[in-house]
């Protein structure tokens, strides 16, 4: 009888560990998915692929540029259309994704170098940024960026 009670107690303790392991697997899978989507989003910004950008940015997006200017989704997409936000290349230097809530929320932070159109004198125009992104998994629309915030980093020469 004591052995049976001990076995039942051990099984009762194993349940939460099993649930935690399952959630961790879901979070890990979500993190991998979000990392791929981050890279695809950067590519879409360079290529001005508005179909992708419309899908990956949530309707309630808050996009804070490195200069402090803030846009909603419509304003940000219009800034790309108008040429105010131009990207010749976006190179990912570091990317870290942490998923939460059983794979339904992701926080991304990283470092990128953006190649912008050349300066008037013809010299390269680069922006080194650290950034934070929050993505939420919408049941109908999939992963969507709800928050972007970036900060300029000094040039390596500085």
TrEMBL record:
According to the record, the signal peptide region is 1-21
What InterPro entries does the database record attribute to this sequence?
DUF4440, NTF2-like_dom_sf
Keyword flag rRNA-binding: no
Q: Where would I find the DUF4440 domain in this sequence?
A: 36-145
Upper lineage: Bacteria, Pseudomonadati, Bacteroidota, Cytophagia, Cytophagales
Species this protein is from: Hymenobacter swuensis DY53
Which keywords has UniProt assigned to this entry?
A: Signal
Q: Which Gene3D superfamilies does this chain map to? A: 3.10.450.50
Q: Does the keyword Cell division apply?
A: no
Protein name per its UniProtKB record: DUF4440 domain-containing protein
């Amino acid at each position: 009888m004591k052995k049976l009670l001990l076995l039942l107690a051990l099984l009762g303790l194993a349940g939460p560990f099993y649930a935690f392991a399952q959630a961790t697997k879901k979070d890990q899978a979500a993190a991998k998915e979000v990392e791929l989507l981050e890279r695809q989003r950067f590519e879409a910004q360079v290529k001005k692929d508005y179909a992708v950008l419309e899908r990956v940015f949530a309707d309630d997006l808050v996009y804070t540029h490195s200069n402090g200017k803030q846009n909603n989704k419509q304003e940000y997409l219009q800034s790309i259309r108008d040429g105010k936000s131009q990207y010749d290349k976006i190179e990912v230097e570091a990317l870290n994704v942490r998923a939460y809530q059983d794979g339904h929320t992701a926080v991304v932070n990283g470092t990128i170098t953006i190649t912008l159109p050349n300066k008037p004198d013809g010299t390269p125009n680069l922006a080194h940024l650290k950034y934070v992104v929050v993505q939420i998994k919408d049941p109908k629309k999939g992963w969507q960026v709800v928050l972007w915030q970036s900060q300029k980093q000094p040039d390596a020469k500085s």
